[in-house]
Specification:
With about 260 residues, the chain is an all-alpha fold. The chain is built from 11 helices and no strands. Helix 3 (about 75-105) packs antiparallel against helix 6 (about 140-150) and helix 3 (about 75-105) packs across helix 11. About 25% of the residues are buried.
């Protein structure tokens, strides 16, 4: 009579398998990210002047957490949403610049080559470059969605008692703190540099040229102020919607573990 019913046993076995798969996936993503950022740190440390590489370090920290641990709640609440929002925001920002830069230079490859030349790195025309850019900007979003599916029960346990509004606010706040830190430590050093040359973007995005048709004087504004501000607004809006609608529903769907 004390033996578990067939349905209960099957559900338990499925849960164990999902938990094992989630753990393996966490370790796989963490290790591959770590190797990638370590390789870049040795090969071209100037890449860390880009927000993309700061977020890759953030992903390493998040995926190093074993969410099944009973003491992982605080670290998971802090880093999970922050990592997801950062991945979506970086993809949104990169997509905006990729479209503009590709149209200006004639192709995505040429735009990326110009960015590489700006930081002293040569970009060869091979498949590796495209795979690398997909790994840096698209894979982080996919990895976090897969993680939310495989580790849903663990995430539900870690977030127990937290509303969707709280999770979204915490994620956005954490990402903003990361972004401001990056901006103050990396962008401020390049304050005298040409923003549009650094990112190989069209010069017509300069503040004066964008505001001139509106009859607004851009005196006193940095050349990239209008473009950068608009880009940040779009990044945050896209990331907030994704965190609320996608990550929020993935975590709350289904039943959480009770033990």
């Amino acid at each position: 009579d004390d033996a578990p019913k067939p349905d209960t046993t099957a559900a338990l076995n499925t849960t164990i398998k999902m938990g094992s798969a989630g753990y393996v996936f966490e370790r796989f993503v963490m290790l591959t990210y770590f190797v990638y950022i370590f390789w870049h740190a040795l090969k071209n440390p100037k890449n860390y002047s880009f927000l993309t590489f700061w977020t890759l370090v953030l992903h390493v920290l998040y995926f190093s957490i074993d969410k099944a641990s009973p003491v992982a709640g605080a670290a998971t609440r802090l880093l999970h949403g922050m990592s997801f929002v950062a991945s979506v925001a970086v993809l949104a920002a990169y997509s905006q610049m990729a479209v503009a830069g590709s149209l200006y230079w004639g192709s995505f490859y040429e735009w990326e080559r110009q960015i590489g030349l700006a930081i002293g790195a040569s970009v060869e025309p091979d498949l590796w470059m495209y795979l690398r850019k997909a790994y840096e900007h698209i894979w982080p979003v996919l990895a976090l969605l897969i993680d939310a599916r495989l580790n849903r029960a663990e995430l539900q346990r870690c977030y127990r008692g937290c509303s969707r509004a709280f999770r979204t606010a915490l994620a956005l706040g954490g990402y903003l703190a990361l972004g401001v830190t990056w901006e103050q430590t990396c962008q401020s050093k390049d304050s005298g540099a040409d923003f549009f040359a650094h990112y190989a973007l069209p010069p017509w995005f300069a503040s004066a040229r964008l505001l001139a048709p509106l009859g607004i004087d851009a005196t006193g504004l940095a050349p990239d102020t209008v473009f950068s501000t608009g880009q940040k607004v779009i990044m945050l809006l896209v990331a907030a919607v994704a965190q609320w609608r996608i990550a929020g529903s993935l975590i709350t769907k289904g039943k959480a573990k009770t033990s």
